[in-house]
């Protein structure tokens, strides 16, 4: 799989979509917006629209409709055209004045047939036809109020967000998480006793919920389109039970079978369950600047892998709190800036120290090209030194525009180096090394008892103490690196003490973070549901449903 091929795949698909956007009102969902963000950039979309009177909007139930001066709309969606998605489409169109609607979905028509319960044999007979899309086109015209208006429903495999030529992400599947051992019990509850499974190794596609199976099929559809673009027939390898299910579905996917018959090249595809690297996800052993930037800077709204960079320092505004929201934040994706792209790719592949030096080198070279009065200094790179270089561009509008992308990456580096969480990174690393040593020499109960004194309520914590979220990260790290261990009385007592201490800390928090709310609310509601003898039916809408559960739980995102 060549890197240029992967990058060109996203760009080529987006060009097909952008060709439909001239003078249109454009609605994007979050996953497609992130794919555009990394693949082409919003500037390319505005060029394709070509009209200042038309706007870009988020696809959501409350999205504003189009006025009489906006007769054309393009909807770019990452999900199945079913259920709430279709309801949202209907509501937006009905409160608008559209005469021409284009709906682009990242999910192929073959998957839509599966979602509508069309048998495989019947689906094979429909090859070359798209009845689901055609029916929706008729509905679009009906919602626009005139059957003579124009409607198109198209498939474009907007699967990837190419962060770099050799690294691409799948934002629409950020919540797709492998099954856990406790999920086997949930799956067995819907199966007869004779067909119950003993472990994850026995789980296959037939045992999954329809919602989860559809999500896998959507991923498989996108991967097959990527292989078609590259002209390869894939040979799949798997590590983990959930990866085995995905690879098996790809092997049996009808369009993929037809593609493999004519493909001239070959590619090896390795699927690895995310649960097999939880230690890497929560550990602080990584010596990479980008990892720290993404960890400490605030997340760019609607994105899974980009951050907000405060750009106030480069404006004429005073850097006061009330002015922060007056300047649009910067970000890491710089698709239109060649120098910034080169720096970004270097940051991804180098260690922290070398990456910071690379940022300084690029800033010095940019300042020299603009004939700015830069003062060279050797030795260790400091945040103050980088800030002084960045400030040279502040009052030079031309230089600022020429190197805007580079300056965003420079400010991201400075703000990360100055962030209190970065200083804590080394503390985490030191404690994790201590835990590793203790795990090798002591029982699990002793290791947990070492963590107990560090659990402090908010009124006793200092900036050097661990927050509830950080304590949970440490717990995940401990249990992930420990592996199999013997459960005894001492361990049971240590775990109970730890649970009580954490529960006390959670209750003492004045306000729980969104993550802690997500973790604690579902178990609390489930407990209430179990203890109520005659629950009030009117309150059931507040109970968690499978489609709204957190990442890692069975069927985390339903499509129906």
CATH-level-2 architecture of the largest domain = 3-Layer(aba) Sandwich
- Quaternary organization: single chain
Beta content:
5-15%
Radius of gyration equals 26 Å
Description of the molecule:
- This protein has 560 residues and is α/β, with parallel strands linked by helices.
- The protein folds into four domains: 3-161, Rossmann fold; 175-280, no CATH class; 289-418, no CATH class; 511-547.
- The protein is built from 23 helices and nine strands.
- The chain has a five-stranded parallel β-sheet with strand order 2-1-3-4-5. A two-stranded antiparallel ribbon has the order 6-7.
- Helix 4 runs parallel beside helix 7 (131-144) and helix 5 runs antiparallel to helix 9 (210-230).
- The longest helix has 22 residues, at 420-441.
- It is globular and about 70 Å long.
Brief summary of the model shown:
The protein is of the alpha/beta class and 560 residues long. 50% of the residues lie in helices and 9% in strands. The chain contains 23 helices and nine strands.
Features:
560 residues; alpha/beta; 4 domains; 5-stranded parallel beta sheet; disordered C terminus
Walk me through the topology.
Elements: H1 3-18, E1 25-28, H2 30-39, H3 42-49, E2 56-58, E3 72-77, H4 84-94, E4 100-105, H5 109-115, H6 120-125, H7 131-144, E5 150-155, E6 161-164, E7 167-169, H8 181-188, H9 210-230, E8 232-239, H10 241-252, H11 254-262, E9 265-272, H12 278-282, H13 289-296, H14 338-349, H15 352-369, H16 383-391, H17 397-402, H18 404-418, H19 420-441, H20 444-451, H21 468-482, H22 489-508, H23 514-531
Parallel strand pairs: 1-2, 1-3, 3-4, 4-5, 8-9
Antiparallel strand pairs: 6-7
Helix pairs in contact: 4-7, 5-9, 9-10, 13-18, 14-15, 14-18, 15-18, 16-18, 19-21, 20-22
Region (Disordered): 537-560
Organism: Trichechus manatus latirostris
GO biological process, one term: vesicle-mediated transport
């Amino acid at each position: 799989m060549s890197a240029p091929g992967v990058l060109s795949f996203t760009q080529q698909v987006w060009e097909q979509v952008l060709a439909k956007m001239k003078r249109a009102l454009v609605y994007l969902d979050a996953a497609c917006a992130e794919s555009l963000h990394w693949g082409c950039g919003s500037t390319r979309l505005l060029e394709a629209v070509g009209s200042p009177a038309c706007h870009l909007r988020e696809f959501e139930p409350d999205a504003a409709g189009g006025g009489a001066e906006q007769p054309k709309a393009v909807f770019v969606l990452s999900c199945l055209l079913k259920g709430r998605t279709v309801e949202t489409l209907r509501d937006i169109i009905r409160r608008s004045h559209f005469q021409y609607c284009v709906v682009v979905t990242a999910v192929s028509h073959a998957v839509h047939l599966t979602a509508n319960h069309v048998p495989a044999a019947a689906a094979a007979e429909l090859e070359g036809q798209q009845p689901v899309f055609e029916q929706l086109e008729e509905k679009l015209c009906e919602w626009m109020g005139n059957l003579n208006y124009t409607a198109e429903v198209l498939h474009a495999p907007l699967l990837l967000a190419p962060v770099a030529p050799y690294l691409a992400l799948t934002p629409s599947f950020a919540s797709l998480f492998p099954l856990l051992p406790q999920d086997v019990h949930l799956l067995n509850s819907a199966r007869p006793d004779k067909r119950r499974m003993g472990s994850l190794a026995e789980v296959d596609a037939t045992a999954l919920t329809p919602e989860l199976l559809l999500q896998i099929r959507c991923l498989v559809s996108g991967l097959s389109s990527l292989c078609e673009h590259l002209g390869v027939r894939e040979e799949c390898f798997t590590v983990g039970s959930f990866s085995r299910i995905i690879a098996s579905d790809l092997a049996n996917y009808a369009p993929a079978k037809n593609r493999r018959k004519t493909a001239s090249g070959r590619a090896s595809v390795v699927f690895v369950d995310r649960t097999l690297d939880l230690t890497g996800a929560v550990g602080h052993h990584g010596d990479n600047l980008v990892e720290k930037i993404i960890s400490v800077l605030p997340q760019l709204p609607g994105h899974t892998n980009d951050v907000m960079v405060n750009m106030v320092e480069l404006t004429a505004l005073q850097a006061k709190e009330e002015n922060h929201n007056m300047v649009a934040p910067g970000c890491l994706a710089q698709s239109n800036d060649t120098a910034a792209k080169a720096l970004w790719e270097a940051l991804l592949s180098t260690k922290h120290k070398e990456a910071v030096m690379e940022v300084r080198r690029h800033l010095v070279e940019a300042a020299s090209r603009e004939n700015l009065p830069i003062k060279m200094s050797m030795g260790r790179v400091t945040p103050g030194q980088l800030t002084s270089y960045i400030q040279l561009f502040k009052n030079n509008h031309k230089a600022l525009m020429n190197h805007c992308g580079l300056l965003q990456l420079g400010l991201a580096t400075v703000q990360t180096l100055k962030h209190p969480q970065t200083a804590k990174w080394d503390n985490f690393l030191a404690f994790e090394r201590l835990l590793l040593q203790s795990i090798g020499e002591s029982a699990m109960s002793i290791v947990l008892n070492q963590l107990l004194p560090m659990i402090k309520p908010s009124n006793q914590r200092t900036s050097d103490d661990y927050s509830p979220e950080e304590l949970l990260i440490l717990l995940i790290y401990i249990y992930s690196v420990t592996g199999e261990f013997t459960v005894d009385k001492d361990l049971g007592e240590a775990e109970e003490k730890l649970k009580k201490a954490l529960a006390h800390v959670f209750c003492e928090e004045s306000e729980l973070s969104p993550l802690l709310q997500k973790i604690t609310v579902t178990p609390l509601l489930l407990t209430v549901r179990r203890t109520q003898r005659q629950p009030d039916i009117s309150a059931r809408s507040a109970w968690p449903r499978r489609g709204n559960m957190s990442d890692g739980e069975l069927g985390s995102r339903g499509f129906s």
